[in-house]
Backbone:
């Protein structure tokens, strides 16, 4: 069994250390403010042989800020089987790869889940898969919400059509805090559905543009939040995390 030795050492990618070769790093990057990255993430990105990016143009800004000149390659939800095969070949050749998404923690409502599953299936324990923790919008939102979070249900993005109604019923009946992601185009519709399903019985928190210039965290009933956004249409912009307090 191969064990990761990256817990404390500062030279994990030292070529002399053959036992620690062939590592696949899942590296969290900022969700807005480029300062929100760990020292370890910067080191791993510098020392990796290749960085797999959801969008290489987005990641380039981060790499430039930290003077990281590691080669990049694209991996996203549209990546083909032959791309995955190329990734396998690189791992077989002993390369260390780092996966990043456009923002936050890869594989959390982001590309990478399938790739990690495929790597585990192909290589078993012969490859070390190492998470490099950091920013995630859902955890940041929860931490500042004041809503009980010892137990919560994370729904990612809600479906646009099929299953949506059922999910709102589930949210209404949930005995756990519910967290999900929403886009500015759909936030109005989603709040209207919350008014319909939970009325004014539960507190809802909207966390918008976290870590960015227009960061805002507002809390109220679903009805109050609908009228807040109606009064301030400019606030229907950016990225949202929605938190619904348990019933
Ligand atoms: N993997 C990411 C993470 O760990 O947070 C999430 C990626 S998901 C494709 C993108 C969604 O996360 C956005 O549509 C939004 O709902 C939420 N999100 C990402 N960054 C955010 C931010 N700075 N403020 C609020 N929500 C954000």
Residues:
């Amino acid at each position: 069994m191969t064990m990761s030795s990256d817990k404390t050492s500062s030279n994990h990618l030292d070529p002399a250390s053959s036992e620690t070769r062939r590592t696949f790093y899942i590296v969290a990057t900022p969700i807005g403010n480029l300062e929100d990255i760990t020292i370890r993430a910067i080191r791993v990105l510098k020392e990796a042989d290749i960085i797999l990016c959801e969008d290489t143009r987005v990641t380039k800004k981060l790499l430039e800020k930290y003077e990281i000149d590691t080669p990049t390659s694209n991996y996203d939800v549209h990546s083909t089987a032959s791309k995955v095969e190329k990734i396998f070949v690189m791992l077989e050749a002993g390369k260390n790869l780092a996966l990043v998404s456009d923002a936050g923690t890869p594989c959390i409502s982001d590309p990478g889940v399938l790739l990690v599953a495929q790597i585990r299936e192909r290589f078993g324990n012969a490859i070390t898969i190492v998470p490099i923790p950091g920013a995630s919008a859902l955890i940041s939102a929860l931490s500042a919400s004041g809503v009980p979070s010892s137990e919560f249900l994370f729904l990612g993005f809600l479906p646009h059509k099929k299953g949506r109604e059922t999910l709102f019923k589930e949210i209404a009946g949930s005995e756990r805090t519910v967290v999900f992601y929403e886009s500015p185009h759909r936030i109005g519709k989603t709040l209207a559905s919350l008014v319909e399903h939970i009325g004014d019985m539960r507190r809802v928190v909207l966390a918008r543009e976290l870590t960015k210039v227009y960061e805002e965290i507002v809390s109220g009933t679903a009805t109050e939040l609908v009228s807040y956004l109606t009064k301030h249409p400019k606030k229907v912009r950016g990225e949202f995390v929605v938190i619904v307090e348990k019933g």
Observations:
- The longest strand covers residues 152-157.
